[in-house]
Design a protein that fits this description.
The structure holds 2 protein chains of 2 kinds.
Chain A lengths: L2 H14 L4 E2 L2 H6 L11 E5 L4 H14 L3 E4 L15 E5 L15 E4 L5 H8 L4 E2 L12 H7 L6 H4 L6 E7 L5 E5 L10 H5 L8 E8 L1 E2 L3 E9 L2 H13 L6 E6 H11 L9 E9 L1 H17 L4 E4 L3 H12 L1 H4 L6 E4 L9 H15 L2 E7 L7 E5 L4 H20 L18 H4 L2 H14 L34
Chain B lengths: L1 E2 L4 H14 L3 E4 L15 E4 L6 E5 L4 E5 L4 H9 L3 E2 L11 H6 L7 H4 L6 E8 L4 E5 L11 H5 L7 E9 L1 E2 L3 E8 L2 H14 L5 E5 L2 E8 L11 E3 L10 E5 L5 H10 L4 E4 L4 E5 L3 H13 L3 E6 L16 H11 L19
Parallel strand pairs in B: 1-3, 2-3
Antiparallel strand pairs in B: 4-5, 5-9, 6-10, 7-8, 7-9, 11-13, 11-14, 12-13, 12-16, 15-17, 15-18, 16-17
The chains are: A alpha+beta, B alpha+beta.
């Protein structure tokens, strides 16, 4: 360990105590990974419990010039929370306090370590919920959700994380603390809150989040539709929306995935179907009746085999469990998986599904698909055994081709998982040099020293160039 | 000098020139949101009217990509041909898309559909120093890179000119109707709160002195007059010598409105959202409204007014002002872009 690192460790130990600074090999190895297959190099791990402690840690890191990677639950799928150069990981997992709900304004301040699902559970008795619901919501944290601007099935109608975050408390790279945004809408100045959400921990450490809470819908209906072709299922996705109905959620699962999930959850899924659609409509009883009728009519027109309507809350929960445990169910097929979450325009769904099938067949890898069909957000999951280098290589190649195919169809790299390390070098596929440089400048405006979660999001070598003029002052006489 | 570039490249070229010559620039779309910020004297006024093409309209994907000078009316018309609309936009057909986004001017339906910033998917901006920069993506969902669309929304022309935008469209509702009630202020306020608590996701609950206007959207069975209200029309846009937009926590709006009514001030409160437009006639009244908003944990900015009303258009320096300044410097290093509209500027020269 360098002297600087040893001094930093001493300082951190004084703030946190010996038990909340992890430096052992096991911890450093654990914190060098997240939910992806990216591996990194972690120097030490701080486990603060308050904003003040985070600020103190950040001041020390600032003085020592050490790189900092914030981390939530570590469920991310792109290596965003993986430190790359032996820096300091600040884990927010112990910051799990929720403040009292502001019922009158339908919002609540939470610490970043609070788990996503725990928010909805805690406010259900008030008739409220926190709308973004990533499939990992039992494990992923609000802080991580803010970092990646997380989505989830219900974001089709309700919008992604940034639409549900009213304010963030940000510990800046030099350790100063600032609240950006607020419960009062549209404050003067730039929407920095909107930039912090989705910045993947590269602009500071978020230590408190003001979440907007949404009324629970008065009525909800969940339907499972099964089809003998993926093309029919995709056509139904398109047709439902063309009829003017935006379902609360509109999810697709292919046969490979259905088989894996059914074996695991036993939800009575039709395992001989080529594709399943999980459709949920919510709102007033009249809206739900109308939406249900549209879904059933459209599905019938496109050769649906059966429409299973959840009869009660238990059955609804079971259908959602089947959907949300899909990633975990892959473990029954292969020990590991590799996935992208690129997005295509919804109208290209059939095409991209065919291309993905071609690619994975050509590379000889098994692909399972479960995804947010309503917004064209794919999750092609390539099952693999990482102890098999050849299979790993083929999986990587297939993933690479899938990403390029999505972009070629007018799509983009990530719908909700973020860029992290894993998709960083694909950024030039969708942005040119000027675009990337502008993003680098926004990042530098928050973190002039470039110590926050470096080498994430933007491709290596992207710099905020010397765009500044020698004299950036407004000329004299500008003002009246 | 008045300039109307015909393409984004021309726009970038004009801005490169202005930066080189340190010429202060004002940007003008439909002119509906022009009277904001500290008064300043531009050397050039750049009009976006030449950027008037619909670039790509994909009704099946429910997105439309237009140049910055295209009007809200044109977008609504193109969308309506496919039974779609842009519900987050203000009811200002002559406002330009670039202007609405630069001003973050949300429409009255934001209670149900959210603010206009949430409808912007991709943005292309000609920066103050004449680069063409794109952010976001045209798909309805993307977290690819830093959120330039949100940064540009509400930037009031201080980073550059919005030359192109892709916005998300929504299906036109099966039914929509405005309802009206008139009566004394206390009664109207009580009625507004009743509507907010009794109905699931009303579209707009607009309170004005002596009148309540409610918009409901959805399936025909749900679009029925709330108790005490009768079918009516969307109220006209408020007009006056000056307008302040106050933002307070939604639950503080009733208290704010009561005080405004006591003071005999004209107002339009968007109940449930925290937004309140207030008619003002003097800088002292601007200050009084701001004090009131700040008392409730909010803020207030002048969104329309002559020079005298805009002596202090934004109020206290916003949090993160140093970050804002560095962002602005990187987009507009010469500081030529609409300098009076930069809320985080250092200080007012004497």
């Amino acid at each position: 360990m360098t002297t600087a690192a040893a001094e930093l460790a001493d300082g951190l130990r004084q703030i946190l105590g010996a038990d909340r600074l992890l430096m052992g090999d096991l911890a450093r190895n654990l914190y060098s990974h997240d939910g992806s297959i990216v591996g990194g190099d972690c120097g030490m791990v701080a486990l603060p419990e308050t904003t003040d402690e985070v600020a103190a840690c950040m001041r020390l890191a600032h003085q020592a010039g050490v790189e900092v990677t914030p981390r939530g639950s570590g469920t991310g799928l792109t290596g965003g929370a993986v430190p790359l150069d032996g820096g300091l990981v600040i884990s927010l997992a112990r910051m799990r306090e929720m403040e009292p709900v502001d019922v009158a304004n339908s919002c609540v301040w939470v610490q970043p370590g609070v788990l996503n699902l725990d928010v909805s559970t805690a406010v259900a008795h008030l008739g409220l919920h926190y709308a973004p619901d990533p499939s990992s919501q039992q494990a992923c944290s609000i802080g991580g959700n803010v970092g990646t601007n997380a989505g989830g099935p219900h974001c089709l109608a309700y919008g992604v994380t940034v639409q549900h975050v009213l304010a963030v408390e940000l510990v800046r790279p030099d350790g100063t603390v600032q609240v950006l945004g607020g419960v009062a809408p549209d404050a003067p100045g730039y929407d920095l809150r909107g930039v912090v959400v989705g910045a993947e921990g590269t602009v500071g450490v978020v230590t408190r989040v003001l979440l907007r809470l949404t009324p629970l819908p008065p009525d909800v209906r969940t339907m499972l539709l099964d089809f003998t072709s993926v093309a029919d299922a995709s056509a139904v996705v398109q047709a439902i929306i063309a009829e003017g109905v935006i379902p609360a959620a509109l999810e697709m699962m292919d046969r490979n995935m259905t088989l894996a999930v059914e074996e695991f959850v036993h939800a009575g899924l039709p395992t001989d179907a080529a594709a399943l659609l999980l459709v949920e409509v919510d709102g007033t009883p009249a809206e739900v009746d109308t939406g249900t009728a549209v879904v059933q009519r459209v599905a019938a027109r496109h050769g649906v085999r059966t429409v299973r309507v959840a009869q009660d809350e238990d059955e609804r929960a079971l259908l959602w469990k089947a959907r949300k445990t899909a990633f975990g169910a892959v473990a029954r097929v292969k020990p590991s998986y590799y996935l992208h979450d690129c997005v295509v325009p919804r109208t290209r769904l059939v095409e991209i599904m065919e291309v993905i099938a071609e690619i994975t067949e050509r590379e000889g890898v098994m692909c399972l698909n479960v995804f947010h069909a309503g917004d064209g957000n794919l999750h092609p999951i390539i099952a693999l055994d990482r102890s098999d280098p050849d299979e790993t290589e083929r999986a990587m190649r297939a993933g690479d081709q899938i990403v390029r195919a999505c972009v070629a169809m007018g799509g983009t790299l990530s719908g909700e998982h973020g860029i992290g390390v894993e998709k960083r070098d694909y950024m030039p596929l969708v942005f040119d040099e000027d675009d990337l440089q502008a993003q680098a400048c926004v990042r530098r405006a928050f973190d002039p020293d470039g110590r926050m979660n470096p080498d994430k999001v933007l491709p290596t070598g992207t710099r905020c160039g010397e765009v500044g003029l020698a004299d950036t002052q407004v000329p004299e006489g500008t003002w009246i | 000098m008045d300039l109307t570039p015909a393409t984004r490249e021309e726009m970038a070229q004009v801005l490169r020139g202005a930066t080189a010559d340190r010429r202060v620039v004002d940007v003008r779309g439909g002119g509906l949101h022009a009277h904001r910020g500290w008064p300043f004297t531009p050397d050039d006024v750049i009009h976006t009217g030449g950027l008037c093409r619909v670039v790509d309209h994909l009704p099946d994907d429910m997105t439309i990509t237009v140049e910055g000078g295209v009007t809200v009316g044109q977008v609504q018309e193109a969308a309506a041909a496919h039974r779609q609309g842009w519900p987050q936009a203000p009811a200002q057909p002559d406002a330009t898309v670039g202007g609405v986004l630069a001003a973050a001017a949300s429409g009255r339906r934001r209670l149900r559909f959210g603010p206009v910033r949430d409808s912007l998917l991709e943005v292309v901006v000609a920066t103050g120093d004449g680069r063409i920069v794109k952010g976001g993506g045209r798909t309805v969902k993307t977290v690819t890179g830093y959120d330039l669309p949100r940064l540009l929304t509400g930037s009031l022309g201080t980073l550059g000119v919005i030359v192109q935008a892709t916005v998300r469209l929504w299906p036109l509702p099966m039914a929509e109707q405005w309802f009206t009630a008139t009566g004394d202020d206390d009664h109207m306020l009580a009625l507004a709160q009743e509507v907010l608590s009794a109905l699931h996701r009303p579209t707009a609950v607009i309170l004005r002195p002596g009148a309540l206007h409610v918009c409901l959207t959805g399936v025909p069975g749900d679009v029925v007059a709330p108790p005490g209200m009768a079918p009516g029309h969307e109220p006209a846009e408020p007009v006056g010598a000056g307008t302040v937009e106050a933002g307070v926590p939604p639950a503080a709006l009733p208290a704010l409105v009561r005080r405004l009514a006591e003071d005999g001030r004209g107002y339009e409160a968007w109940m449930g959202t925290g937004v309140c437009l207030v008619a003002v006639e003097s800088a002292a009244q601007v200050a009084a409204v701001r004090d009131l908003a700040m008392l409730h944990g909010g803020h207030a900015q002048v969104v329309d007014g002559d020079h005298a009303l805009r002596a202090d258009p934004f109020g206290p320096v916003p949090a993160g002002a140093d970050i804002m300044r560095r962002i602005r410097e990187s987009f507009d290093p010469a500081g030529i872009m609409c300098p009076g509209r930069f809320a985080a500027r250092e200080a007012v020269p004497a």
